Amino acid sequence: MAPQEARTIRLNVRPERRRRGSREDVDLARLAKALAHPARVAILRLLLTRGDCICGDIVDRLPWAQATVSQHLKVLKEAGWIQGEIDGPRVCYCAQPEAGRKFTALLKELTPGQERSGT
Questions:
Q1: Where would I find the HTH arsR-type domain in this sequence (predicted)?
Q2: Is the pLDDT of residue 18 over 60?
């Protein structure tokens, strides 16, 4: 075979092994991954305590730069932990309590003796 010829390798993977997991497993992983950094936990805790905040208020209360806080807010928002609402030139963020309830319910399913709720 010439060095520049491309070879196609086909893997015989059963369709059931290609699945990413159940919807509940994917949701739990997404929510947990967003909390996998202490800064994001601190931001979420602040929003739960204060109700809502603009990014500048969060930066004033926590020891991270504005760019760092913005990046963590983006991750939390994409995972569904928080919501951002445009307020003129600023964005006002607030926690989404439903995400916490869902996370708790999904996590309980990993506890021995708990039945799957179909959340």
A1: 20-118
A2: no
- Whether 49 and 85 have beta carbons less than 8 Å apart is answered as no
Output the pLDDT for position 113: 74
**Whole-prediction pTM:** 0.75
Q: What is the pLDDT of residues 35-72, one digit of tens each?
A: 999 999 999 999 999 998 999 999 999 999 999 999 99
CB 100 within 8 A of CB 28: no
The conformational region for residue 8 under phi > 0 = left, psi -120 to 50 = alpha, else beta, is: beta
Q: What CATH number has the domain bearing residue 58?
A: 1.10.10.10
Flag whether 1 is in a domain: no
